Amino acid sequence: MxxxxxxxxxxxxxxxxDRFIPNRSSINVSSAQFNLSRSGSGTxxxxxxTANAYQEEVxxxxxxxxxxxxxxxxxxxxxxxKEDLRQTYGQPLKSSTTASANAARSKRRILTAPERILDAPxxxxxxxLNLLDWSATNLLAIGLNQSVYVWNGETxxxxxxxxxxxxxxxxxxxxxxxxxxxxxxxxxxxxxxxWDPETQRKMxxxxxxxxxxxxxxxxxxxxxxxxxxxxxxHHDVRVATHKVAELRGHTSEVCGLAWRPDxxxxxxxxxxxxxxxxxxxxxxxxxxxxxxxxxVKAVAWCPWQQNLLATGGGAHDRHIHFWNTTTAARLHSxxxxxxxxxxxxxxxxxxxxxxxxxxDNQLSVWSYPALTKVADxxxxxxRVLHTALSPDGQTIATVSSDDNLKFWRVFEAKPKAAKSxxxxxxxxxxxxxxxxxxxx
Amino acid sequence: MSAAxxxxxxxxxxxxxxxxxxFFGSILFQRGLYPPEDFKMIKKYGLNMLVSSDDAxxxxxxxxxLQLENWLMAGKLSKLVMAINSKETRETIERWQFDIHIMNDxxxxxxxxxxxxxxxxxxxxxxxxxxxxxxxxxxxxxxxKCTFNILVYxxxxxxxxxxxxxxxxxxxxxxxxxxxxxSFSTDVHKVDALVAYRLxxxx
Lengths: 440, 203
Prior knowledge:
- The complex is a heterodimer.
- Chain A has helices at 2-5, 29-38, 49-61, 96-99, 101-105, 427-439; strands spanning 68-73, 116-119, 132-134, 139-144, 147-152, 158-163, 171-176, 183-187, 192-196, 201-206, 213-219, 222-227, 231-236, 243-248, 254-259, 265-270, 275-279, 285-289, 296-301, 308-313, 319-324, 329-335, 340-345, 351-356, 362-367, 373-378, 384-389, 396-400, 404-408.
- By secondary structure, chain A is mostly beta strands.
- By secondary structure, chain B is an alpha+beta fold.
- Chain B has helices at 2-5, 7-30, 55-73, 118-135, and strands spanning 39-44, 47-52, 77-86, 92-102, 146-155, 164-166, 176-185, 189-198.
- Chain B is 32% helix and 33% strand.
């Protein structure tokens, strides 16, 4: 006790008594305490990595085998951030698309032949543009190089709505308002225009973007435009100073843009492989998702589940991801095996259709949330560039750089006798049907 | 060693790779290597534990766990290390080490100690997971972008599949600090946990 309690200071006392009365002034109490706690723990593990490392280095240098091999797992862990474009090994092992697809296929017959084919000469083969949209009034707008044509779904008439005057410039995007009364047109020189299809006159022109406007989305009186420089502008089309907000969340061209139907959230996808979710009240993204490894053009909100968003990646990525935009969680993913150029949800079935590029240039119909493939429709000779869903939700129009505009009846309404839950399709479409058959 | 070969021992050993995988999962979550929304909560050992729900990560960890299981069952493994490296410089910033001691047979004369109850083992495991969670409070923030590596210390005669390669020990080069965590033991083996981290040299 004596020796361990005062290792240094305590000298041999001059007189030895039978009782130990500590002389506190001569004892270094703190060092005594330390030594006490140390006594009897000589086997304590050395908690010093540098010493450990040094020892092993020395052992190795002397050629002493430590009788151990240090092994590392060779592959890289899956990436956790955006810059990483490596295709990681261990992709989702979802082969369910092949096995159970046959079972699902028998449930519903989908016509694999187009309902009608129109010519679309001069369509620009550019993945990043959005050149096709179908209005609620059954007008289909398509941008063909310098012109916008409007095809009337009821009469089958085609009119030239507008033309870009400047040589070398072209139409980069078209988008109808929700009620179909106006068409927004984005051009390659950064102009955003609004056209009235009835009078075929330009209502206004909203300049300001420095590069082409390749994506447009309406929310009531707000028109959002995505630009090649990565910015998204909100234009209030009612007022003279139209630019009411600028969202900067992409570093590269914005090619997918969609408002949630209630107008509270905007989703955008860009050539920087990001998906951004924007709250309407804020100019900073609510979430940024970096799971795609290629440009995100396909962005679609689910019509029956408000916070569900589907996004599809380009040629390098080939995945469709499903997001819960409230919690930011990724709900599902599916590897489609091909570039995803667009996603359209069905309003009739719990299904969606995705359009693809190389190698099959097909339309794929998927059930959700099972993610089994209902059908594969070989659609075009080259990649399907744009799609649009008809106002009654039954027909999908696809256009490809093989200069064909095709109509597919993929979501044919169920017969009324089988299920009376769904509302009858609008009578307008029936008349279209009637005329279409008569024309043939 | 032969104790590890009994049926009961096998179960415990196999279970312990599972456990180490769970430790790895909690570390990945706690240290923020993957976004928190990629994890889901499960209840185990009387704790809420977070396991990854990301398919790619799950598949990756699965591959590792399967091989670890093989080695552990053959008794070729002595250490498991999860090294957290900076993505830029590849320098090790944090190092989680799990030492695995496989218990030898008790000498014939000894009376075997009373086997631990499952509950006692679970309590020890829960204590480690709690400690991993709590260690976030003293570990320095990972400010760089990080990735991780799994290392094992195997015997020289262990069979090595091509997916594993020889490696350096990934020690932290400077200003290392270590904290020993709790250990847990079953009848056949004992696992010690240790975390080493890099202190930023601002002192």
